[in-house]
User: Fold this.
Amino acid sequence: MTHKHVLSSAYKLIGIKSGVIVAAIIALALLPLYGSAHAINVGILVFSYLALGQMWNLLAGYSGLVSLGHQAFIGIGAYTLAVVTVSYGGGFFMSFLISIVIAVLFSLVISFPIFKLSGVYFTIGTWIVSESVLMFFRNWRFVNFDAGMNITRAFRIPQENLYLGALALGIVSVALVYFILRSKMGLSLMAMRDNPAAAEVRGVHLYKTKLICFLIASTFITITGVLLYMNIAFVMPGPAFGIDWAVSMVFIVVIGGIGTIEGPIIGAAIYVFLRQFLFNFPGMSLIILGSIAVIVILVAPKGIMGAIHGKFGFELFSVRRKMED
Amino acid sequence: MELFVQSLVSGILLGGLYAAIGVGLSLVFGIMGLTNIAHGSLLILSSFFIMIFVQAFGGSIILAFAITIVLMIAVGVLLQGFLINRVISKGAEPALLVTFGVAIIIWNILEFFFGANFFRLSNPLTGINVVSTRWMIIPATALFNLGISTVVILALHFVIQKTLFGRAIRAAAGNVNAAELMGINTSRTYIYAMCLALATSSVGGLLVGQTFGFFSFSGMGYLIIAFGVVVIGGMGSILGTFLGGIILGVAQLLGGYFFGPGVQTLVGYLTLLVLLTLRPQGLLGNMTRK
Assistant:
């Protein structure tokens, strides 16, 4: 086979892939028409967790920022929703807008101290930030201390709307990470990951690149937090800022494959279905999830997608540029 | 004014306990560059072991403590030998995530068996005050904690600095390849280090269990205290943990004195964040990696 043939078959494969992706998106968007209530509910969870996982992947897998503190942003989203709709009588659109503003401001403020830390210190720093925010909310009279708030306006949202919102969020998160990686910033990130010193010498702004990724991820996780709590409709500081969110993000990315775009998609689906299945074994679910995560790190450090890619060379979303004629 | 002095003194005494909580984490980080997120959960695990053995063997807390140390050393061998040693060479993140997974497993197993109940180890010193004046009250428990923690930290310092075993540990911490060329089995050294850390954590588990009591999920809170102690004192500096414990303890209690007891923990965390930003290597940090 000549060089041209290889290329044209590669293009054909890309054509097939885009067709499959578009068909899958249409099928998923029409799910409310044919799916059961249970399927829609699972769908909300899968796509919300996909957005969370994908953003954590952008941080840990591509920017080298392993954060165990992004549950702070879920809580911020949840409380923004509660305060805007309950305390001020605002709408959901307003909640999303305000949550974005707060998320950006808060990430900018905390980026000054925590971006001075690197490696494990960064991880610990983010976690302590999150715990501090938790403590702050527990002592804040305005949000009813530890007793929590009922998000009364969210009681009667049709599940279909939440599903479409979650689906949009999931798709946008995947597309966003894909385009970031295909852009100049993606090259910067890869250069930074492979050799920070060399990247900096060649003109990559390490601080700026990391900060942009951090801002994007934090904002998206906050929006997802708003959406998740439109479904839960009751917010308390403990669960909203709980380490469980970080556990789920880590699990989804590690199982699916850290540093791959497909990984969090597989991971989120596995995570939600496992949680549903393990619901029948109360108390055991996190033990089993934790054990699976540990085993995967030991046996297949690159996760399911890393193992598939290593064996078959298959990628759904290739971020590598292919050579052109 | 009396309350201020009392807060200061209590802070220093609390710092002694905090140092005992943090020293194991510092040891593990200094030697293998591992941030052991399971540290707090392992510490609470030892508290539960002590409680179980006190009930099982007729109420002797010393016997129960001795059995717990042996058991925790066995846990250390398993944890380091079968899990962490397999990923430690692949960089910081995989090992960090493995310990994160182990932390979640331990805490949920404890929750599975013991629910959300509060437990406390019996403490013969409860209610006894060594000093009781208008200016300050020093409870016997707090003084005992400070004393034990001082002994443990000095002993650990002596072992690391003065013995052949300690020299092997420091060699492995300094340069893995050179240490291996000199005939040191670094994997085995790491196992010893983890066992040493878990033995000291059992002491922390005993003191915490007697002083504060514990829940199945208390481990994560103590992990952050341990981080605080270690980060302030300098990761890997054994004597630094003592300083870190006292600074964190004093900061928390003075924060409670100035802003009310509700925000005590928050003040501790914020102090930690500020110190982390100003001096990431810690006050006495020397064995830092990277």
Summary: Chain A has 15 helices and two strands. The first strand of chain A starts at residue 149 and ends at 150. Chain A has a mean pLDDT of 89. Residues 3-29 of chain A form the longest helix (27 residues).
